[in-house]
């Protein structure tokens, strides 16, 4: 093993929550009127699942500047205007590619929590740089709330001089996160899950992600302004602001929550999402979910968010554990 390989994973400083109040409200309201289940969780003071998907970014964005430069190896400066604003390098300054998360238990808005983790590796593919970070979040009682593995594009611009390479742990060689069956019995929607049928389609209705919706989610103090500010988006090499990965994911998760219940994903469910292409402000998308496996101890669901013009923006899968 080389000296550089031995330096991975690279631990990050532990950070504490909760999220900013305006961030929580913005995330819930950014889905508009098509998200009754999401709004139900918000009104109960429970953190919505797509915000728990962002806990690794919460960790990255609150790292000391010197630590960020060391982990990102200078990539921060390649993300347009991000260095001038609050935020972080790597994923927070770029674009999500994949998010793997297990939501072990609900977190309340007002509840303090602790997130810690590490940068596990970087790689270059076809002139683009990627980074992977893992995190673990515990609630105020020290109980496991969320485990996350986030892979992101460090810079949207292609650098033709970069050769394919890899440092640290390769994603394909790492153990895949899994559903938490120890939490399955606490799910308040087991009766609804018992009615799941293979082949059932959820959602599948078109909607438009407007710049206004993206600005509501970003709040007046955005951590990554490429999602709401046209100037910052252009500086990063984008034609228009693009919806954050968790924003796109939220519409797909809503289809599942609307069918089975608002809290159905917050008791051990594992969600694996992959983003295939950006969703720009004003794009029409169709979030869709299909139940593909129903067994005594699980329900598995395939996710898809498709652009109205045909290309797929995001695919994913959900495994909801049922008591064994």
Give a summary of the structure in a few sentences.
The chain has 324 residues and is of the alpha+beta class.
Characterization of the model:
The protein is α+β, with helices and mostly antiparallel strands and 324 residues long. It is built from ten helices and 13 strands. Strands 1, 2, 3, 4, 5, 6, 7, 8, 9, 10, 11, 12 and 13 form a 13-stranded antiparallel sheet that branches. Helix 2 (21-29) packs antiparallel against helix 8. The longest helix is centred in the C-terminal third of the chain and has 16 residues, at 245-260. It is globular, with a radius of gyration of 19 Å. Residues 72-93 have low confidence and may be disordered.
Largest sheet: 13 strands, antiparallel
What is the helix fraction of residues, given as a range? Answer: 10-25%
The multimeric state of the shown protein is single chain
Number of folding domains?
1
Order of helices and strands: HEEHHHHHEEEEEHEEHHHEEEE
What would you call the structural class?
alpha+beta
Task: Report the radius of gyration as a whole number of Å.
Answer: 19 Å
| DSSP strand count | 13
Instruction: Output mean pLDDT.
Output: 89
Layout of helices and strands, plus pairs?
Blueprint lengths: L2 H4 L3 E2 L3 E2 L4 H9 L6 H8 L5 H5 L1 H7 L3 H8 L22 E9 L9 E13 L2 E12 L4 E10 L11 E4 L21 H4 L7 E3 L3 E3 L1 H8 L11 H6 L9 H16 L8 E7 L7 E13 L2 E10 L4 E10 L3
Antiparallel strand pairs: 1-4, 2-4, 3-6, 3-10, 4-5, 4-7, 5-6, 8-11, 9-11, 10-13, 11-12, 12-13
Helix pairs in contact: 2-8
């Amino acid at each position: 093993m080389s000296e550089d390989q031995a330096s991975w994973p690279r631990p990050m400083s532990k950070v504490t929550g909760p999220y900013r109040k305006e961030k929580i409200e913005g995330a819930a309201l950014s889905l508009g009127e098509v998200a009754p289940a999401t709004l139900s969780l918000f009104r109960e003071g429970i953190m919505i699942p797509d915000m728990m998907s962002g806990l690794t970014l919460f960790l990255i964005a609150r790292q000391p500047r010197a630590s960020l430069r060391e982990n990102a190896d200078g990539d921060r400066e390649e993300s347009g205007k991000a260095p001038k604003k609050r935020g972080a390098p790597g994923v927070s300054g770029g674009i999500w590619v994949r998010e793997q998360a297990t939501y072990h238990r609900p977190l309340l808005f007002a509840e303090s929590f602790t997130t810690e983790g590490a940068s596990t590796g970087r790689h270059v593919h076809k002139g683009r740089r990627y980074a992977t970070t893992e995190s673990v979040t515990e609630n105020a009682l020290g109980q496991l709330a969320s485990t996350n593995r986030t892979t992101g594009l460090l810079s949207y611009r292609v650098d033709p001089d970069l050769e394919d390479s890899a440092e640290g742990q390769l994603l394909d060689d790492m153990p895949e996160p899994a559903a938490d069956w120890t939490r399955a019995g606490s799910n308040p929607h087991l009766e609804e899950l018992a009615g799941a049928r293979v082949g059932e389609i959820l959602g599948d209705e078109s909607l438009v992600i407007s710049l206004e919706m993206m600005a509501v989610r970003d709040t007046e103090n955005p951590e990554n302004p490429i999602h709401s500010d046209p100037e910052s988006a252009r500086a990063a090499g984008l034609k228009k602001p693009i919806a954050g990965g968790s924003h796109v994911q939220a519409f797909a998760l809503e289809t599942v929550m609307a069918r089975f219940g608002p809290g159905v994903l917050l008791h051990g469910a594992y969600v694996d999402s992959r983003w295939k292409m950006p969703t720009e402000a004003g794009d029409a998308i169709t979030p869709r979910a299909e139940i593909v496996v129903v067994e005594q101890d699980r329900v598995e669901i395939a996710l898809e968010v498709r652009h109205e013009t045909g290309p797929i923006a995001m695919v994913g899968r959900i495994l909801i554990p049922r008591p064994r």
